[in-house]
Amino acid sequence: MDALEILRQVVVLVHLSGFALLFGAWAVEVFNRRVQVTSLMSIGLSISFVAGLILAAPWGIPYELNYVKIVVKLVVLLVIGALLGVGSSRQRKGGTVPPAVFWLVGILTLLNAAIALLWR
Ligand code: HEM
């Protein structure tokens, strides 16, 4: 592996760590039967987002990136971000997060991982 390839794999690791934080933070709330969003979810999402943008840059890798897939993942991520925004603003105002908003955060996060792995 050359240095650039190692660096790119490190960014993939950061990207996956962001996903793990987002999904893990969400799973903790499911496990504790709390329908709420947390700042760790937003931190995980931000890490995935920044690392994902870096990975989408032309790295001179020997295969073509699937930009249709990347744009779909980006749109799904932006929707998750909007849901987290709606949820946290409801919480700040002392209200509750609509269950559909909470469940969609986890489902769309898994969907993005499925798109990343199953769509080549
Ligand atoms: C919650 C959101 C996301 C999840 C769960 C996710 C998940 C993943 C996973 C599991 C991989 C590894 C797949 C592989 O090695 O083939 C990956 C790679 C990648 N992701 Fe994401 N991703 C997310 C958001 C994004 C976003 C927003 C972008 C771009 C704007 C992006 C761009 C990429 C790129 C370019 C790769 C490398 C693909 C390759 O080397 O062929 N991801 N992602």
Structure description:
This protein is mainly α. The protein has one domain. Helices cover 77% and strands 0% of the residues. The protein contains 4 helices and no strands. The chain has helices at 3-31, 39-55, 67-92, 99-118. Helix 1 packs antiparallel against helix 2 (39-55), helix 1 packs antiparallel against helix 4 (99-118) and helix 3 packs antiparallel against helix 4. The longest helix is centred in the N-terminal third of the chain and has 29 residues, at 3-31. The two termini are 23 Å apart. The model has no long low-confidence stretch (mean pLDDT 97). Protoporphyrin IX containing FE is lined by residues 12, 15-16, 19, 22, 48-49, 52-53, 55-56, 65, 70, 73-74, 77, 109, 112-113, 116-117. The chain crosses the membrane at residues 6-28, 40-61, 67-88, 100-119. This is Fe-S protein.
Average pLDDT score: 97
Determine the strand fraction and express it as a percent band.
under 5%
Provide the list of bound ligands, each named once: protoporphyrin IX containing FE
- Helix and strand pattern: HHHH
Proportion in helices: over 70%
Could you list the spans in which at least 5 consecutive residues all have pLDDT below 50?
none
User: What is the number of E strands?
Assistant: 0
The overall number of domains is 1
Quaternary structure of the protein: single chain
